[in-house]
Every structure is written in C-alpha cells, then in structure tokens.
C-alpha cells in the first residue's frame, strides 16, 4: 500500500468539507427521477428461429434471454418482436411494453426453430421497421439474438452493414446489438453488424445473463 502523501498525488488534509449521506428517501427519489429524465427507447427484439438454433438449445437460451430482458425494461419503452428463418416475420408490432408485454411473452412461447437463416434480410427489415416509427426523442435499438450463420438472404453482409450505417448517420440513429449463441456462431458477421452502429457482440451464455442485460441496458 502507498502512504497518503503529496508525493503520491494525495493531499492528506483534504477534503475539509464533508457532505452528509442523503436520507434513504432522498436517494430513492433521485433513482425514480432518473427513470423520468432518462431517454425512453424503441426496441425491436429480433430472434433467429432457424433450424441451426435447435443445436445446443440455442433457441431456448435466446427465448429465455428475451423474457428476462422484458422483465428488466421500463413499461414506457416501446418493444416489438420479430423472428426470422427462411423468411422474416413481425410477431408483435412495436408498442408500449406496459400494454404488450404479455402478448410478446405469449409469442415467445410459440416460437419453434426450423428452416434456413435469412439473417441479413432480417437486419435490413428490422432497421426499416424502426425507421418507419423513428422519433429523435427516443433511442432506437435492435437486440439481435442469433448464431449468425446466414444461409438464405437476398441481401449480403455488406448491404446489411450499409443500411445500419445509413441509419446510424440519420436524425434518428439505430443501434444494433448482436447477441451470439453457440460455439459455432459466425462471430465475424455479428462483429461487422455490431461495428456498423458502434456496438459490440455479446455472448448469449445463459450463465452470464445478468451481465448481458447490464451491457444491453447501458446502450439506452
């Protein structure tokens, strides 16, 4: 341990003025007020339901992460749900979570993993869906849950990246947060998708779900 001294960059005579610890009621009020001033978000959950997601129960892990995410979100945030395999489908349109939470949970319970993987088409479609409801006063985000192995898109990776970058440079930028599942996840593709909006790929490890939620939440 280093001594507290000016030589070590510390003034032993400071601080001279000590502020009292706020009352617990005051601390609670500040925490609640933060939720009021914090920017609210429009979040699209985009889940890979292709056949490869059956391996290692990746689909089960992704669904569980989505459910925990919903529990963690403020009711004033708008949340929607999309799935993709050989095709791309909106399961629950973007809406206030306080009114559509149960609808999203029920849709998650009906999901089955089958078909090919139109990852790049799905990313493009999700960006376009958010752009249709863009509000510069709200944070726009896509949480992408996938193993990243595209097999059937009409669009390619470069096109998906370009769409994200164009949205990133618009009046209402869109964050795309990739969450990778499985040992065989295409990390290169998911990294490229994340970099396009200055985010990073996160691990979908079920043992790490709390940290995952904290990281996702730090973006909005």
Automatic annotation (TrEMBL):
Tell me which domain of life the UniProt entry assigns to the organism this sequence originates from: Bacteria
CDD domains the record matches: vWFA
Q: What is this protein called?
A: VWFA domain-containing protein
Per its UniProt record, what InterPro entries does this chain match? ITIH, VWF_A, vWFA_dom_sf
Family matches, as Pfam families: VWA_2
Its organism's taxonomic lineage begins at: Bacteria, Bacillati, Chloroflexota, Candidatus Thermofontia, Candidatus Thermofonsia Clade 3
Q: Where is the VWFA domain?
A: 42-216
């Amino acid at each position: 341990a280093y001594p507290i001294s000016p030589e070590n960059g510390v003034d032993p005579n400071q601080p001279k003025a000590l502020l009292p610890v706020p009352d617990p009621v005051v601390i609670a009020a500040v925490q609640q007020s933060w939720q009021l001033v914090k920017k609210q978000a429009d979040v699209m959950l985009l889940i890979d339901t292709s056949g490869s997601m059956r391996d290692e129960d990746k689909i089960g892990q992704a669904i569980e992460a989505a459910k925990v995410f919903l529990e963690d979100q403020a009711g004033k945030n708008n949340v929607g749900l999309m799935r993709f395999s050989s095709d791309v489908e909106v399961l629950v349109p973007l809406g206030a979570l306080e009114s559509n939470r149960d609808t999203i949970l029920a849709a998650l319970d009906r999901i089955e993993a089958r078909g090919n993987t139109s990852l790049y088409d799905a990313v493009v479609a999700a960006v376009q869906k958010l752009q249709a409801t863009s509000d510069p006063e709200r944070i726009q985000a896509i949480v992408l849950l996938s193993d990243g192995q595209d097999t059937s898109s009409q669009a390619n990776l470069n096109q998906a990246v370009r769409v994200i970058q164009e949205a990133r440079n618009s009046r209402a930028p869109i964050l795309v947060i990739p969450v990778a599942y499985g040992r065989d996840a295409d990390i290169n593709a998911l990294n490229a998708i994340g970099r396009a909006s200055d985010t990073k790929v996160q691990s979908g490890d079920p043992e790490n779900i709390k940290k995952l939620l904290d990281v996702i939440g730090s973006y909005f």
